[in-house]
Write a structure and sequence with these properties.
Strand content: 15-25%
Number of domains: 1
Helix content: 40-55%
Order of helices and strands: HEEHEHEHEHEEEHEHEHEHHEEEHHH
Radius of gyration: 19 Å
Mean pLDDT: 93
Number of helices: 13
Shape: globular
Distance between the termini: 33 Å
CATH architecture: 3-Layer(aba) Sandwich
Structural class: alpha/beta
Amino acid sequence: MQCIEWGQRQMSEPLYDVIAIGNAIVDVMAPCDDADIEQLGLAKGGMTLVDTDRARELYDAMGPAREISGGSAANTLAGLAALGAKCAFIGQVANDQLGEVFAHDIRAGGIAFDTAARESDPPTARCLIFVTPDGQRTMNTFLGASQFLPAAALEDATIAAASILYLEGYLWDPEEPRKAMRRAIAAARNAGRKVAFTLSDAFVISRHGDDFRALIEAGEIDILFANEHELAALTGLDDFDAGLAQLAAKVPTVVVTRSENGAHAVSGGESAHVPAEPVAKVIDTTGAGDLFAAGFLFGHVRGRSLADCLTLGAICAAEIISHYGARPEADLQELVAARLG
């Protein structure tokens, strides 16, 4: 990852459109039936953190599986890079086979990744994903090495070299990367850059909602991504419009997705809503929110209208749910050109 001197950075254009900090994970995905979900005692459609023994148990219970590099923020960057943005990623892998897979995949996508691999246990993180016939994904995440990202892995000048710092809520759970992200927020704000944050999951809010609300109250977040369930968990309000209004009064740009009911955004007093893009068949919803964020952020850094940013997000999300895996397979630039010109 190219670093530049502080004085040079202050006088130059950003080197990156988006730099992200998140879990460096390899997804292990397999189809299953609803009966399998019940038998294994899984929470359908949710994300559960698992330890080494549970990860091994679930892996043994899986049918034929595919290994695909994942991680929420890394997926978002993959979408951004596919759209033509310049991106960098900070995340921790171990010096093992899955770590090599992750590093190869993210660099092959044109994303800068220079975080040194961890030499000791635990191994590289993996997410065991069971996909039911309705496209719902049930995720069981072993965080492994990703939860040991140290603050020392960050260079303030590198954070300052991106227009937007994008943070993954999932990674807020472990103490060490939480400290790293707090340092990154300070570096970005000191450099006058924007901070984007995705809430990731309601369970993360149940554990760290006070932290997130404190960041919002302190004006540390410029762009906030949530789905409607996360919105309710964060605000404590079941009424969608009331929850959105509450956050919009405190965060410059709020983006909330509602699955098949489209997405809403409020920015600078302007509101916009777009419907979900049509999909012939929903195959796998893994990464839908990640790719929605990719499309929205791409539009944002390119100065598109709020409605266009939402539409870009919807286009990317529709592509990702049409196949297995959370990395785009179709040409996103072609899809965008066909839809928006």
